Amino acid sequence: MKFSIVIPLYNKENSITKTLNSVINQTYKDFEVIVVDDGSKDNSLQRVKEIKDDRIRVITKENEGVSKARNVGIKNARYDWIAFLDADDLWKANHLETIVKLYEKCPKAKLLTTSFCFEDEKDKKDIQLKEELFYYVDDYYERLYKGAVVWTSIAVVNKECFDKCGYFKEYLIKGEDLDMWSRIIDKYLLAKTDIITAYYRREILDKRLSTSVNSVKKYEVYYFCLKNIFNPNAKTRYQYHVIWTFIKHFIVNKQFCNLLLIVLKYNFKLLFIPINLPKYK
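-> structure tokens emitted (281 positions)
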């Protein structure tokens, strides 16, 4: 099992060295690293070049967004398994080794994922996790009630998925990963382990969540398909929750044009969304 690790890079001079070192220090060594510099304006690219490892390749391009950067990395990958890692996140040394074990346990899966925790909680979480579990996920949308199932920096995808399901939607600036996983899960099996192999920096998360979006089209990923709007299974309940969340976001931020566009786009169907939606933790 060989991995092409795709790392999109944009103005991460303070974190990219640590991120790349977490890759180089993997116990499983059969991989290449594709760093796609998305037009960084700081010293990010110089930090990458300071790390001497023949497995690292750098592709430079103009700034077009993280989805485009990931797609460029995928298309330039030499191996069949694509592992993703953001330039400000970290892997534990056993990440790729754990992915290999997961695939051995669940060989029919084309989307593989481990688990993660926030960096400032890593000691507590590692102590609490005592049992190693490997399994197929057949209730993806139900699990979303409890939190993230797949996160980009722990996702490993077989190249076949992109051939059949398409690539990351480049017009999306938020939720492009959720859209990608949803399309893959509609056609292929997902396998997961509860072993924590990556750390998410909380300050980075807070910054991302505070980003505002100017176009309803860029939220299209969250709407999926509302064909079964009167038959709320797990998937549509999740859709209801996310749409309602963004309706409130538009109201609070006085983005009334975006709010109107949503209502018009769905012919006022959103008015039927129940107010007492279950809360996602």
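Residues 120 and 202 are 8 Å apart (CA to CA).
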